Amino acid sequence: MTVPDPKVFLTSIFNAAVAAADPERTIRDHLPAKPRGRTIVIGAGKGSAQMAAAFEKVWDGPIEGLVVTRYGYGAKCERIEIIEAAHPVPDAAGLEASRRLLEKVQGLTADDLVMALISGGGSALLPSPAAGLTLADEIAVNEALLASGAPIAAMNTIRKHLSTIKGGRLAAAAWPAKVVSLVVSDIPGDNPALVASGPTVPDTGSREDALASISAYGMKLPDAVMAHIQSPAADAPDPDDERFARNEVHLIASAGVSLEAAAVEARRQGIEAVILSDAVEGEAREVGGVHAAIAREVATRNRPFQKPVLILSGGETTVTLRAKGKGGRNSEFLLAFAIGINRVEGIHALAADTDGIDGSENNAGAFADGSTVSRMRAAGVDAKAMLAGNNAWTAFNAVGDLFVPGPTGTNVNDLRAILVR
């Protein structure tokens, strides 16, 4: 089958993946029984405002609540207050949101219900430094984590040991109320305790695990932070703590479900689809090189998959910052990919974050094909130099290949879609 416009096709694949994580559809399927007492809605993440709006539509009892999302990601709610704060580096608005969320769950009873709407991005949106630490310390930690190249699971294990709200502490504060967490996962492996550093879902990751990651990735953290994380005061609540005994956790959307939906949409349009994995991790440029090698093999030798085919993968790569360019993990992946398929015909790719934002700019990712590198050269841009300088945004902007869908209202991590015609 001939695909008339690869960008249109790949955009339709992205849209299908995002639609599969639509909060109204997924929340409706995971509603608990109504409580005898109050229903309090709390939440954090880049999809939390849309989750709150969806919850208001499907819950027919009285509710009150508060959720925090990224600037520009708000949604209209009648009964749930929406606060916007900074991501990926925390700010004072997030600090105030954390304080108010902890306040919101104080003084509840066993008859009350707390609905926690959690999605990716909540780690940065919920700064709440442990005793003796400051917002500046938490910002320094976040910047070090983002530059380290550490996988998201390691980052969030560190974060939860420096917080008064992460690692299950928000749910512990709500006790004896029952807490039901509805989680949209952006974590490879879909461990709900790692999404947003698990404010309502404790896990077994220890201080020793956090310290091992700090050492392994060569992180330089403030002295006060290191002193705290080396002390028993940093220990997070244990999952077996009786305060969590009645709680429920439901994973309502994930990368795996969205990739399956993307594959179904491709087949509906007459293109066979294969899913490599929904949990790809590693350095973005290296993962881009591997994906390029697979695409080249299909394009030139018709193996290991028969063309035409759509090759899909999900997960969350990382970027070790070597310079101060503009970009994000998806655009960096795709620039390495473009270099790897340079001058190979019939390959078209989209790499994008399902929340609509790849890095600090307004694009979710970018498009690339076998002509990308030569078009960049014609525009006065050296693709390899841009990759070396972590400047993928600038490279794709020069050729008009940025992908800008706007905020999507969900977040199930990255989508990589490679069409080989």
From TrEMBL:
Q: Which GO terms describe its molecular function?
A: kinase activity
Q: InterPro entries of this UniProt entry?
A: GK-like_C_sf, GK_N_sf, MOFRL, MOFRL_assoc_dom, MOFRL_protein
> Which superkingdom, per the lineage?
Bacteria
Which keywords are on file for this protein? Kinase, Transferase
**Residues of the MOFRL-associated domain:** 10-230
SUPFAM superfamilies per record? GckA/TtuD-like (SSF82544)
**Where is each MOFRL domain found?**
310-414
> PANTHER family, alphabetically?
GLYCERATE KINASE
For this entry, the protein name equals Glycerate kinase
What species is given as this protein's source? Mesorhizobium salmacidum
